[in-house]
Specification:
Elements: H1 10-22, H2 29-39, H3 47-56
Helix pairs in contact: 2-3
Amino acid sequence: MMGVHRWRGPDQQRELIGELRAAGLAPTAQRRLVLDALHGHDHPASAIAIYQRLRADGRTVG
């Protein structure tokens, strides 16, 4: 299974945090992990696929 990609630089992270806040969402660590995992897929991914990928990488997500 592929690992979680770290694809954002500091500017992209700030932009993402701003977009989450504008949508009324807190930029939690888990939300950022899920977005990183989604970005690492080159095709649509189900919630369970993202969950399994993060768990396989040792990430704690609910």
